[in-house]
């Protein structure tokens, strides 16, 4: 069986889109590689942040729902997303994030790697983790990022999930998913055979997805690596305009009328008195 290649992307819910853009592109310096909409709720943005070319495994995405109530920590939820940064850069990152008033925890060691916990503007727990390599994935630095290439976020490092009990999820990941796993149709069949209920394969245009909940209740997504973000935009101009999948293109005028305007990232350092 073809193995899973690792994390493809992580998706979270955010508050106002401009705040989200200011933080992830303006402060963390990630590239906005796709500005689209939630395909199930086209009046909401779907913003994709990654490296300059949008390689799978570097991609953190958000649905900005202004009116969503703050999340409540609990079991069956993802509790933190970790982003890889180069070795010996956490002190630099702590100084940068402090200048912008980002809530920070103390640098800690996790499985032999240093990590800096922080909270984004809408309450998402994030950790920057010093990692020698972006977990075997390609990485292309961005020349337009406000963060110099030697400090840039390299991609996804991992995600933490909170479970009531460890054993069912651990067994599912190792015995059902293999956790090296990903040939999508075969993997979907294995998930279904284990008594879970995956969705059909859903065409997201830039990749294809299958969704299901693991035993602890966390929503998982199996996503293919291709065709990728450059299928409908030139690689040098990713994220510069609103891109819609072909089946939503006829509704462009209506969709654009309800989306809030987005300006280039404009984070302001905190003035301390």
TrEMBL record:
Residues 6-131 form the VOC domain. InterPro entries: Extradiol_RC_dioxygenase, Glyas_Bleomycin-R_OHBP_Dase, Glyas_Fos-R_dOase_dom, VOC_core. GO terms for molecular function: dioxygenase activity. Keywords: Dioxygenase, Oxidoreductase. PROSITE patterns: VOC. This is Ring-cleaving dioxygenase. It comes from Eiseniibacteriota bacterium.
